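Could you help me review a protein record that somebody else here produced? What it holds is a sequence and that sequence's fold in token form. I have pasted the whole thing underneath without changing anything:
=====
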Amino acid sequence: MLTKGNAVRIQEILHHEGLEIRYSTLTRLIQQQDLRMPVTRSGRYDFPAADEMQHDTSPHTLEIAGKKVNAQCAGMILPFSRYCYVQYYSNFTRFEAKVFITDALTFYDGACPRCTIDNTSVLVASGSGPEAIINAEMRYLGDYYQMKFIPHAIGHADRKAHVERLFYYIERNFLAGRTFSSWQDVNEQVILWCQQVANVKKKRALDDTPENVFNDTERHALIPLPSIPLPVYQAATRIVDSQGYIHLDANRYSMPERLIDKKVEVLKYLNKVVIYFNREKMAEHDRFIGVRLQRSTIKGHHKTLGKKWHKEPSHYETKLRNIAPVLDEYLNQLIKSSPGRGVTKLKQLIALYRDYPQNAFLSAITEALKYGLYDMIRLENMILKQIEGDFFNLGGDDV
């Protein structure tokens, strides 16, 4: 009886003693000799309507946007009607637990006085089993909805067998052959699955569907929810960095430039991040979920770095415009071939325009444009050639 009827272990012992017995023969002998521990009758738990909820989480692997990711499946079920609610999260901290439980109660439009949970440190502060001390945040959440969280005794996970069975069903039905584009898509699909598959499938133990039993018997017995739902968020303070962003969960969210180096209040909700300065809402971002080192920038928060005036015409260009079409074309080409706005060459060009006759100036501009010549010294030499006979005696005649 030391082996408790374990055929594999008995076969190992016989092998060491030099005896070889086929496994099928060995199992028949075990049955004949009644070596195994007798099977005892299993018990059952009875759950009156709206008396209890069962909550737990289970790790699952999902395919999101073509990548395999680890996810936490959170489930809630009413044992009386088998009416279930399921959501997925990239991780499951106390924050996600509060979000899930609040959403589940909203889904049921009511609460039960008892919620059986696992002995997880997310909800339990110390101890284990029914005598465990629940974390203060979770206890406050439960008190708000008139519900107590009670962990099952260690080694008695069957106390929440209905939610455990729900995970088995999810893995073999909902996840089979499904892919997702985003975390939002995951949770939208799993809600539809709850409403269109899990809660409308007829259960042998109920002789009806969970939805019908819930609507006919259990819904009206639930504890009504408060008129104002408890908001679920995490509050934090951050300093806006030199690039105009705050850091949260290894991701960055933009803020107006004028708040650089200022302390701001950050409220993290499940799907959004809201940021306040001096109690005034300054920004709201979609929250990054399940990723790191991402950046969200709201249009208008940051000015374009660099010299904006490069896009505007300079004072010198404005002075030279509309004098003659050929000069306008020359200005276009000159600026295009010069760094920035070509201010240095435009200053030299306006000096030439002021110092020399307009006809000679425009004649030289026409020739320079023809050959793509934008050197101001050579342009001045061309102007001087145009006017040498008018202003200077260069022919050698005696005075």
Q: What stands out?
A: Residues 234-296 form one domain. The chain has four domains: 1-40, 53-221, 234-296, 314-391. The CA atoms of residues 349 and 376 lie 7 Å apart. The chain is about 35% helix and 20% strand.
